[in-house]
Design goal:
By secondary structure, the chain is of the alpha+beta class. It has three helices and seven strands. Strand 4 and strand 5 form a beta hairpin. Pfam families: PAS_5 (PF07310).
Length: 205
């Protein structure tokens, strides 16, 4: 019998120690194979002299194997974020359309500063990021989710995008009142940044 869901959104106090990776180490990590495909595709997009590919370099046929599992994030001039493209599998799990949504509005307010810090680190460092965690979804379903993010530039070379690949599994409905937001971070199992050639953040965020 599933334990009743206790609605106590937390500000990530129980995050395990970071295990940061070099880009070359992702292939041999315990991450899901679908997530490992994105770093391979990301490297294939690099033109000579480029350190980070541009969003305009993305070609949907090349992304076909991960397309249902992706979200493209953009940081706007005012520092807020919006979702530019969301795959069908991600939208099915979250139970709503996501394009043009502020991603921070999808989680409880208490969790937004930590989530924003990760987004900013991916763009400002720049670096990659991965996390394996349990999310509680607004439909009363609990899911194990693993995510890998890598940055992208605009056509002028400014880093203001990142593409995240999601792997959902172990969905089960839990008794009790579901969260009012689309998702709540309930438990973090594994977390770390990925060094793409510019180091990783020194802060714990």
């Amino acid at each position: 019998m599933n334990e009743p869901y206790q609605r106590k959104p937390f500000d990530f106090p129980q995050v395990p120690p970071r295990v940061d990776l070099k880009m070359k180490d992702v292939a041999g990590s315990a991450l899901a194979e679908k997530l490992k495909l994105w770093p391979v595709l990301w490297r294939d997009l690099l033109d000579e002299g480029k350190a980070i590919p541009a969003k305009s370099d993305l070609r949907l046929p090349k992304l076909a194997s991960i397309l249902p599992n992706i979200i493209i994030f953009e940081r706007l001039q005012d520092g807020d974020y919006t979702l530019r493209l969301a795959g069908t599998e991600v939208e099915d799990w979250l139970g709503r359309k996501l394009t043009d949504t502020n991603p921070l509005s999808l989680v409880p307010e208490i969790q937004r500063p930590r989530v924003r810090a990760v987004y900013d680190n991916v763009i400002d460092q720049p670096c990659g990021f991965y996390i394996s965690e349990v999310l509680m979804l607004s439909r009363g379903k609990k899911a194990q989710v693993t995510t890998l993010k890598l940055p992208l530039t605009d056509d002028e070379g400014t880093i203001r995008y990142f593409l995240a690949v999601y792997q959902f599994s172990d969905g089960e409905y839990v008794e009790g009142q579901p969260p009012k937001t689309v998702a709540e971070h309930q438990r973090v199992d594994h977390i770390g940044y990925i060094d793409i050639g510019f180091g990783v953040p020194e802060t714990a965020g």
